[in-house]
């Protein structure tokens, strides 16, 4: 949301969105120092919740150095050292989006550092998975890295950007699976609904990419309309677009909605 305009907040609230959770993310350019991340963490823990609140949307976030900027291990170590001072802030849910981008050794090292930090502070995890030809291998490596740390509970981790060839391995291992709706790469509404119909609603939900490029903040309400057209009941739609994310996120004591 840091790259979106306030109209997006208004439109999401008008469409019935109950909350926003924003992962720490690549800003469209590489930051040159840990100080840049410090300011960014202040932005998503202080400024952005206030901006969203003006439009009636509770705003929560996840912190990390994202996979696209984690090739530089020394920078990653400096950024990870900054994170604990932000963990007590009232809207921080956990670490994310951590993971792999090109499945490199350095990225894996930084992923393992994040997993260790999450284990030490008993934090929930939002994990990114790579795109296109790197996705299958990257998802497998990510699941292995999470399972290698015995203090991580799969039920408190969501593996994001699953597609047809990765969703089963994520669900079978006990993790939550996120389908990211995006006009270009990742997943379209109809593919997401196909996966819901094939795998059922257990531990499966959707999120919309909102970033500096082509992306659709209202992708979830649009997909709800599409589900309605395809004959899903209101209760079935509510389960995947509201109840599932609510149940997962409520594992953090900080995740409270005004109506809950
Ligand atoms: Zn991602």
Characterise the protein shown here.
The chain is an alpha/beta fold and 260 residues long. It has a single domain (6-249), classed as TIM Barrel. It is built from 9 helices and 7 strands. A 7-stranded parallel β-sheet has the order 1-2-3-4-5-6-7. The longest helix has 20 residues, at 34-53. The radius of gyration is 17 Å and the shape is globular. The two termini are 24 Å apart. The model has no long low-confidence stretch (mean pLDDT 96). The structure holds zinc ion. Zinc ion (ZN) binds at residues 97, 128, 160-161.
Summarize the helices and strands and which ones pair or pack:
Blueprint: H1 6-14, E1 20-23, H2 34-53, E2 59-63, H3 73-82, E3 92-99, H4 105-121, E4 124-128, H5 135-148, E5 157-159, H6 167-172, E6 176-181, H7 189-199, E7 204-208, H8 219-229, H9 234-249
Parallel strand pairs: 1-2, 2-3, 3-4, 4-5, 5-6, 6-7
Helix pairs in contact: 2-3, 3-4, 4-5, 7-8
Bound molecules: zinc ion (ZN).
Residues 97, 128, 160-161 line the site of zinc ion.
